[in-house]
Write a structure and sequence with these properties.
The protein has 200 residues and is α/β, with parallel strands linked by helices. The chain contains 7 helices and 7 strands; from the N terminus they run αβααββαβαβαββα. Pfam families: FSH1 (PF03959).
Length: 200
């Protein structure tokens, strides 16, 4: 995002008042909040420099997945870290194609409600599906969909994909500063990452 550097400098300047930067964190599909918390710990909080300045609060996705129906690796990580696996929206060719769109909108609404009710927050951090939801919340706030101005100051999007449905995409690139982190294992579609980076 073009404003990311300026936004990061501003965020760092405000943070020195003594309060940690507070981020609401949205896990990927098939994860639990506890699993994502462990990943964030490994990525950021093991370093003293980060730990002193960041507070992560992980939110549970609204659509829970039965552990018995989940892949073996999902079952294993949830057993080790705790929590129930969930997702923010569901795809599939055997259902109404509009359903994932509606589920994404509802999930974004639930996240926005928590931001309002439990604020102040500094940023949203989302992994995979959670990143798609986080970017959607930022879009809704910027486009004036009944959300207060300045709801969040920045986004951290980890391996997030281009959202479903043209109606859910922003009319113009977002002004909210954003940091994009992409996994190097090639699991995601490059076109999705490029669209997200260029247009969000």
């Amino acid at each position: 995002n073009a404003g990311a550097a300026d936004g990061a400098d501003s965020a760092a300047g405000k943070e020195v008042s003594g309060r940690k930067l507070r981020l609401l964190c949205l896990h990927d599909a098939g994860q639990s909040p506890q699993v994502f918390a462990k990943q964030l710990q490994a990525m950021f909080l093991n370093a003293r420099e980060f730990r002193a300045h960041l507070e992560f609060v992980c939110m549970e996705a609204p659509l829970l997945i039965s552990k018995e129906d989940a892949p073996a690796d999902v079952q294993a990580t949830c057993v080790l870290a705790g929590g129930e696996p969930g997702e923010w929206f569901r795809g599939g060719h055997d259902q109404d194609p509009r359903r994932p769109e509606l589920q994404l909108q509802r999930s974004a609404g639930a996240v926005a409600a928590r931001l309002v009710e439990e604020g102040p927050w500094d940023g949203l951090c989302g992994f995979g599906q959670g990143g798609t939801v986080a970017a959607t919340v930022a879009r809704l706030a910027e486009e004036g969909h009944g959300l207060p101005e300045g709801l969040i100051r920045f986004l951290v999007l980890i391996d997030a994909a281009w959202p479903l449905g043209a109606r859910l995409r922003p009319a113009a690139p977002l002004r909210t500063p954003s940091c994009h982190v992409f996994c190097a294992d090639g699991a995601g579609r490059q076109s999705d990452h490029e669209h997200l980076l260029l247009h969000w």
